[in-house]
Amino acid sequence: MPVRKLKLTVLALALTAALGGAYSLGHIQTISEASAATLPPPVAAPQAFAPSAALPDMGSIVERNGPAVVNISVTGSRKTGNNQADQLQIDPDDPFYEFFRRFRGAQPRGGETPVRGQGSGFIVTSDGTILTNAHVVEGAEEVTVKLTDKREFKAKVKGLDKASDVAVLKIEASNLPTVKIGSAANTRVGEWVLAIGSPFGFENSASAGIVSAKSRTLPDGSYVPFIQTDVAVNPGNSGGPLFNMAGEVIGINSQIYSRSGGYQGLSFAIPIEVAMGIEKQIVTSGKVQRGRLGVTIQDINQSLADSFGLKKPNGALVSSVEKGSPAAKAGLEPGDVILAINGREIAGSGELPAIVAGMAAGETAKLQIWRNGASRVIEAKVGSFSEPKVASNDSAEPNKGRLGVAVRALTPEEQRRAELKGGVVVENASGAAARAGIQPGDIILSVNGEAVSSTEQLRQLVGKAGKRVAILVERGDSRLFVPVDLG
What we know:
The protein has helices at residues 3-20, 33-36, 58-65, 84-88, 97-104, 134-137, 272-285, 302-308, 326-330, 351-357, 412-418, 431-436, 455-464, and strands at residues 69-79, 112-123, 129-132, 142-146, 152-161, 166-170, 180-181, 192-197, 205-216, 226-229, 241-243, 248-256, 267-271, 291-292, 295-299, 316-321, 337-341, 344-345, 364-371, 374-381, 383-384, 405-409, 424-429, 443-447, 450-451, 468-475, 478-485. By secondary structure, it is an alpha+beta fold.
C-alpha cells in the first residue's frame, strides 16, 4: 500500500473512534460501569478445534541440516563476437544501428566475456563429497563452495552426468556436517517437504510445500522420474536438497516450470536414489554406465488401452524397436505394452527408463508384456546405455468420426530413404484422424498391430475395426501410436 494511502487510512480510523467513542482498530466496544451490570452473563468461548496431528517441526529440520547445505558459485567465460554487428545482432543498414552502436560504446573485437553463476549443493560425506546439479557446474573453470560458517573452498568436479543432471564435487576438508539420505520411493503424494538452498544468492533459505506428484516425465528427454512439488524454488536453488519431515534428503531440486523465469508452483526434484546411484559410479569408476533396451516408448491413455484390449491404461507402449538392440534380439515388437519389469509393475512410461538405466549391462530383464490381447514374459539382456527417446503426442483429445485421411503409397526412393518395406503417406488429414493428431507427411505403418502395405489394406483394416483403432505412424525420426475414435 502506498505511504500516502496508508496515512489516510489510519487518520480515517482515528476520526471514527473519536466521534463515535465505541470503535477501535480491534473492534472492541467501550462500556460504562453503570451499564455493565445490566448485561447478560458472558457466554463461554467455544473450544478451539484440536487438529488430529501437529504441524511438522520444520525449524528443527533446518537447524539440524542447514550447515550441510552449501552455496556454490562458478566462474567461466564465453566467446564474444568478432565485430560490432555480431554483438548488436542488428543489420548495419538499419537506421538504428549507429544509435545502438554508440549507446553500447566500444566493444572488444573478439575475445572472451566472464560468466558467473550460482547454485546450491549438499554434503554427503564428512570428508567433502558434495552433490549438486550438472547444469550448475557444467563448463565452469572455477567452482567455489561456501559453508554456512563462512568458510570457502575451491571444489573439484569429480564428474557430472548430463542425462540425470547430477554432478559430484569434492572439497579438501574433514569433519564436515552431512545430510541423512532417505528414500523417494517411499514418499507419498501429499507429504510435507522442505527445500534449503540459495535462491537468487540468498544463502541457506528454506521453503516448504507438499509432494504434488511422482514419476513425472519432462519434455527435455531426461530419463529421470521427477518428484513434482509446490515448494517455492527459484534460480539459485538448483542442486539443493529436498527433505522429508524425518529430515532425510529425498531429492535434488533441479527444475521449475515457469512462463516468467520465476517460481509458479511447479518444481521438480531428482529422486535421491537416482542421484546416489550416479554418485557411487562417479566416485568408484569416474564414469557413469547405464542399461538400455533400445526402444521408443510412450504413455498409454484410455483410448489406446481400449484399442489394445487392456483393462486399465497402465504400462509403457513400445512404438519402435531399434535394429540390433537388446529389445530387438529379445523379440520385442512395436505395439507391445510393457506391464512390468523383473516383477515391478510399470504404471506409466516414465518409470521404465529409470529402472532399465539402473541395471548393469549384461543383466537379464524379465519383461511382462501385453501382445495380441494376452500377457506373456520376454527375457532381454540389457545393453549399455544409449539415451532413450520418448515419443510424445501433444494432439488434442480424439473425437468421434470417420478416419478422414487421403493417403498414397510410398515411392521406392521414399521407402529406401526411410528404410521401410510398407506403409502409406498421409497427404491430407481431416475428421477423426486430424482431431487425433495425424498430420500430412505422417507415414501410417500399422492399424491395431497389423502392418499396412497399401491404401486398400488401410481401408480394409479400418473398415473391420471397432470404435477405436491404434494407428502407428512414423513422423520424422520418431514413431508413435495415435489412438483414433472412429465412433
